[in-house]
Amino acid sequence: MSPAQSAEQPDVVQPSERGSREVLDASDISRALTRIAHEILERNRGADPVVLLGIPTRGVPLAQRVSARIQAVEGQSVPTGSLDVTMYRDDIGLKPPRGLEHTDIPGDGIDGKVVVLVDDVLFSGRTIRAALDALGDIGRPRAVQLAVLVDRGHRELPIRADYVGKNLPTSLVERVTVHLTEYDGEDAVLIADKGAK
Amino acid sequence: MTAYLITGASIVGGEVADLLLDNGEIVAVGTNLSTPEGTTVIDGAGLIALPGLVDLHTHLREPGREDAETVLTGTRAAAKGGFTAVFAMANTDPVADTAGVVEQVWRLGRDAGYADVYPIGAVTVGRKGTQLAELGAMADSAARVRVFSDDGDCVWDAALMRRALEYVKAFDGVIAQHAQEPRLTQGAQMNEGALSGVLGLTGWPSVAEEAIIARDILLNAHVGSKLHICHLSTKGSVEIVRAAKKRGLEVTAEVTPHHLLLTEDLLTSYNPVFKVNPPLRTKADVEAVREGLADGTIDIVATDHAPHPVEDKDCEWSAAAFGMTGLETALSVVQHAMVDTKLMTWAEVADRMSYRPAAIGQITEHGRPLEAGVPANLVLLDPTVERTVVPGDSVSLSRNTPFDGMTLPGKVVATFLRGTPTVLDGDLTR
Amino acid sequence: MKHLLSAADLSRDEAHLILDTAEEMRSLADRPIKKLPALRGRTVVNLFFEDSTRTRISFEAAAKRLSADVINFSAKGSSVSKGESLKDTALTLQAMGADGVVCRHGSSGAPHLLATSGWMTGSVVNAGDGTHEHPTQALLDAFTMRRHLGSLEGRRITIVGDVLHSRVARSNVLLLSTLGADVTVVAPPTLLPVDMTAWPCATSYDLDSVLPKTDAVMMLRVQRERMGEAFFPSAREYTRRYGLDVHRMAQLPDDTIVMHPGPMNRGMEISAEVADSTRSVIVEQVTNGVAIRMAVLYLLLSGSNEEEQTA
């Protein structure tokens, strides 16, 4: 029953390793998140209607960081939680069973709110599709927006991000890896060839 | 009738000699024998000649369960396993508790011609343990029954057991007891011990066997009759019988091939092919029954060949039937467990599987030493061959062998019943 | 893991995975839409050869919340006395394309046989077999304890009653010891297996000596019919020596919880006051049963049927 790692969870790649290069460093990430926080406030005319939901695993600390920045700007806390999409994935029957990640919907729920989904990398769009389905089972938000740290292209579904930390044109053979201090001891976005170890 | 000359076989595992069979008898044992014209010569080099095996405990299932076995198929399996005589247990349907039924079984055996069939009569009417069957009528019948048993069930009523033992003295009969205290084994499914507690299967404690054996030995000592213990399975039973024999008390006992080899550990698979009564016991019990058989405490090996149709074994444990087939594997198992382990010689195998079972069953046609003038009932065994047991290869109607997939030594090359081969070159002759 | 047949099959990591997954399942159960899509298109058959409405409903609710198609197959009373029907039933389920079979059977080992016979290819969950095991009950018990006691490492769990005939006790002893708990079973000697050397637990005949050193006490159902088989003399004597009443409950440490797998014999092994007291988590056990069964079905059935591949 040992579950495979969450599919979107990148392998741990050290920056010094052969074949990977750093495209964002810690301060790049910090600036991108600050900008996203401001854009969210601007677009929604304040923090009032906003609920931030991070998609595990690395979307969750990103959501918390954005939340902290909004609080710093507005002096008002934004409901922030997490949304596991494992059971809503379209490949669930095709891969070994996976353990669930934690779903934490803030107390007031999402009905009538503007839910901002937060994830680390936007790629095929399938994770976000699953997240939209998962949201539908929880309530009826007024609107759903998407914030990602990196958009690497290659969409397979008609999905786009509302807030992007960095657009990163990649080839399909490359692998984008996000490191966050909460999990990896550092903040960095790396690109590696798929074959590289 | 064709004469047969078997050349260069080891007689009961000892000296190498030729055997000349003619007119249903062993004509001569020696070298440079003069043979009649048309004698068929069988090269016995490397083979062991044993007296035809005698099984004191076989379930032939006919009449009543011809879907599991018939007298014909059961005796074919017997011949394949080197047996020339089998005692057919009484738990048929109808029960062999009257002269009519035992004579029917006896005649079916004669017609089949693969092995002599000696019916065992039930001790009580319908094997219900309440009223003595007409033991005298069965003894006086054409079947000449001398062994009586309610096997499958214990004659648990002490007074009834005492009377049965007393009554058969009139015609020198023997009561073969299925030693199982019924109240201690209600719903029992396997040996009671550490493993039954883990598997959640109701225990069949050793004491349920040992208590009856001890009781019956004492009852028999009191009335001075003949008592035989069926399928003894525990270390404690061996100790009781050994102590009784040491005190000079009359008792004989048998052990099955499966209790000489298999242990309860096989039951972790919940495969009902291992369900048998008495149940497979522990390693300590297996060692004790081997030792008991080697030192003569246990007199004989008897198969308790218990064929069952597939559907009675292809099911959940508690719904499955008790019993295992054994005729075709008995000699191999004994070689593996007793001879190859140096616990017994081939001469002792002849004793435990031919001479003594014939003596307990009181038959004179079988169980005779291989010498001139005795009926030519014998088996040729190649002890060097190894074979893997495949249930589908069995000539029995049933497939419930617990030795499925095991590699066992020894192969019956030929079996002769009164000078006529029932098995040649390892196959039934017809 | 393809099947769940015995609590002994679970490693500590696997047990924790099930418990953690159940934790998520339980929180999801509070949502307005209780259905999850994880087992959409999968067929789960509840194959019950014994009556157990409670267990069947629990599995049924679990499977339905995961969007599985559920077929209830109650085989009791039909031609089941003839053993062959287990095989025929299995062949039928195979023909119907059952992905998972939840099997309750009166014969110990029947789910094991279903899983290993080759009659069918689906996953088998043991929902209680004879006097053998009931692993999902043990999981829900451990889940309930963990919610109240935290980690079970070093926790003292006492299981009281008819251990000999209890599949709940077997599975609990195995699972709780895997999770690091110190388990003691308490019963009259007649209701313990004669040889318990293979059990990873301590035994006692004296309930009063064990209760003060207990973090959770689980009372097992004792069937009155056992009296007729001389396992104990009378209900009154059983209750006096092994029943949990308010006086005995007073001997328990303050935070000790009282459990019962149900159905209870109130007044026999447990008094009504104890069953309904604040220490009792018996109702919660039932609630947690659905979450545990969701977790088990999810982990056994949601993935591909192929052998595990590396992600």
From TrEMBL, chain A:
Q: Which reaction does it catalyse?
A: UMP + diphosphate = 5-phospho-alpha-D-ribose 1-diphosphate + uracil
Q: Which domain of life is it from?
A: Bacteria
Q: Where is this region: Disordered?
A: 1-25
Indicate whether Glycosyltransferase appears among the record's keywords: yes
GO MF annotation list: uracil phosphoribosyltransferase activity
Please report the stretch or stretches of sequence annotated as the Phosphoribosyltransferase domain. Answer: 22-166
Give start-end ranges for motif PRPP-binding: 115-127
Query: Which GO terms are recorded in the biological process aspect for this UniProt protein?
Result: regulation of DNA-templated transcription
Query: Enzyme class, one word?
Result: transferase
Please provide the record's keywords in A-Z order. Answer: Glycosyltransferase, Transcription, Transcription regulation, Transferase
Q: Which CDD domains match?
A: PRTases_typeI (cd06223)
**SUPFAM superfamilies, per the entry:** PRTase-like (SSF53271)
Keyword field contains Transcription regulation:
yes
Question: What EC number(s) has UniProt assigned to this enzyme?
Answer: 2.4.2.9
Spell out the family assignment given in the record's similarity comment. Answer: Belongs to the purine/pyrimidine phosphoribosyltransferase family. PyrR subfamily.
**Which HAMAP family did the record assign?**
PyrR
Q: NCBIfam families per the record?
A: PRK05205.1-3 (NF003547), PRK05205.1-4 (NF003548), PRK05205.1-5 (NF003549)
Write out the function statement from the record: Regulates the transcription of the pyrimidine nucleotide (pyr) operon in response to exogenous pyrimidines. Also displays a weak uracil phosphoribosyltransferase activity which is not physiologically significant.
Name of the protein described by the UniProt record: Bifunctional protein PyrR
The organism encoding this protein is: Kribbella kalugense
- List the taxonomic lineage: Bacteria, Bacillati, Actinomycetota, Actinomycetes, Propionibacteriales
UniProtKB/TrEMBL annotation, chain B:
What the entry lists under NCBIfam families is as follows: PRK09357.1-1, pyrC_multi
This chain's protein is named Dihydroorotase
What GO molecular function terms would the record report? allantoinase activity; dihydroorotase activity; zinc ion binding
Its pathway? Pyrimidine metabolism; UMP biosynthesis via de novo pathway; (S)-dihydroorotate from bicarbonate: step 3/3
Q: Where does substrate bind?
A: H59, L60, R61, N91, N277, H308, F322, G323
Q: Which CDD domains match?
A: DHOase_IIa
Instruction: Kindly list the organism's lineage.
Output: Bacteria, Bacillati, Actinomycetota, Actinomycetes, Propionibacteriales
Name the top EC class. Answer: hydrolase
What is the primary gene name for this protein?
A: pyrC
The record's function comment reads: Catalyzes the reversible cyclization of carbamoyl aspartate to dihydroorotate.
HAMAP family per the record? PyrC_classI_B
From TrEMBL, chain C:
Q: Where does L-aspartate bind?
A: K82, R167, R221
KW Transferase (keyword) present: yes
Q: What is this protein called?
A: Aspartate carbamoyltransferase
Q: Name one Pfam family in it.
A: OTCace_N
Family of the protein in this entry: Belongs to the aspartate/ornithine carbamoyltransferase superfamily. ATCase family.
Q: Entry's HAMAP family?
A: Asp_carb_tr (MF_00001)
GO CC term (a single one): cytosol
